[in-house]
């Protein structure tokens, strides 16, 4: 399909700019039975540097010199212990300084000793909130749907895998079954991993996801050379098997952000709904662009068709090596 050259160029520019998603920041404030507070701040890492985000609470509790510091692969973590004789948590103002200069979000979870859990999603356009904790909060439906949408849209590796399927599976009915199989599969492992029924190292999962994309790239190149492989013949099977793997990646992101203890099943469902909305929106936009490119009636050399596979494969192997090095290091 010579007419794909335009979309290839667009994806090359977009893809080269990002190898990792920027995960949302996370601030948890937990009130204990004695009214002391445990405050946890998770600052996302981009490459090897923390995204310049700084939490502020109007009571002035977040003194860096008093914080206990640790880190994971995706976050720098700070923890504070606030004694019981603190100012009231209700009506405190929370701000994430620097959020307005990013494209990420910040999830604020507050658990009180009397009124349950509260969830707030701060965004670059409104990086602050006043905590109204006087009465229980309704279930945080929209917050977790937004998190799911943001996660899939910022996860370029997941989107690249889906895009590879769109290039390989051209018949509409087969494409519907393929995307459905991918959706069912990653929903299964997202639930199992989030509920701790299965546990797999996030580093291993991320490296394996990169390999799944490389496999799809090889299948794509072989297809344009006249050798139809397993993915072309049984796309739903391959998308289901690799969808199980990608679901573990979604679960890793969700577990690092956190779930409200009194609403875990609902939050999990809503996050998954958000992922599906984001994925379907991406598929719809890509199909519209591909349809537009085909109408251009471009006359290009046959070898141009191999460019998507080589580009996807090169980027996937770069991610694989990078993630294996992180796993070993």
UniProtKB/TrEMBL annotation:
Lineage top rank: taxon: Bacteria
The record's InterPro entries line, in alphabetical order, gives: Put_HupE_UreJ (IPR032809)
Keywords assigned: Membrane, Signal, Transmembrane, Transmembrane helix
Instruction: Tell me which positions the record assigns to the signal sequence.
Output: 1-19
One Pfam family hit: HupE_UreJ_2
Q: Does the keyword Transferase apply?
A: no
TM ranges: 147-168, 175-198, 204-222, 234-254, 266-290, 302-321
- The protein in question is named HupE/UreJ family protein
What organism is listed for this UniProt entry? Flavihumibacter petaseus NBRC 106054
| Lineage start | Bacteria, Pseudomonadati, Bacteroidota, Chitinophagia, Chitinophagales
């Amino acid at each position: 399909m010579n007419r794909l050259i335009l979309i290839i160029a667009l994806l090359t520019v977009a893809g080269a700019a990002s190898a990792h998603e920027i995960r949302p920041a996370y601030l948890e404030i937990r009130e204990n039975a004695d009214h002391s507070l445990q405050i946890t701040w998770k600052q996302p890492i981009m490459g090897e540097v923390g995204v310049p985000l700084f939490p502020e609470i109007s009571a002035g509790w977040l003194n860096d010199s008093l914080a206990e510091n640790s880190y994971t692969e995706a976050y720098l973590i700070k923890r504070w212990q606030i004694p019981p004789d603190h100012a009231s948590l209700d009506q405190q103002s929370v701000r994430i300084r620097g959020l307005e200069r990013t494209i990420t979000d910040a999830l604020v979870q507050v658990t009180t000793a009397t009124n349950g859990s509260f969830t707030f999603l701060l965004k670059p356009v409104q990086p602050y909130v006043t905590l109204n904790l006087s009465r229980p909060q309704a279930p945080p439906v929209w917050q977790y749907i937004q998190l799911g949408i943001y996660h899939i849209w910022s996860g370029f590796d997941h989107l690249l895998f889906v895009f590879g399927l769109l290039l390989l599976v051209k018949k509409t009915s087969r494409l519907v079954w393929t995307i459905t199989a991918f959706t069912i599969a990653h929903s299964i492992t997202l639930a199992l991993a989030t509920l701790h029924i299965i546990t797999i190292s996030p580093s291993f999962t991320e490296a394996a996801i990169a390999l799944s994309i490389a496999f799809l790239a090889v299948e794509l190149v072989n297809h344009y050379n006249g050798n139809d492989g397993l993915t072309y013949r049984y796309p739903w099977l391959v998308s289901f098997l690799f969808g199980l793997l990608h679901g573990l990646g979604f679960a890793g992101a969700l577990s690092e952000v956190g779930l409200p203890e009194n609403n875990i099943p609902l939050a999990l469902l809503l996050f998954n709904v958000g992922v599906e909305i984001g994925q379907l929106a991406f598929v719809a936009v890509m199909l519209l662009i591909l349809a537009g490119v085909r109408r251009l009636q471009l006359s290009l050399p046959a070898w141009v068709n191999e460019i998507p596979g080589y580009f996807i494969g090169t980027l996937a192997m770069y991610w694989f090596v990078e993630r294996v090095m992180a796993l070993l290091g």
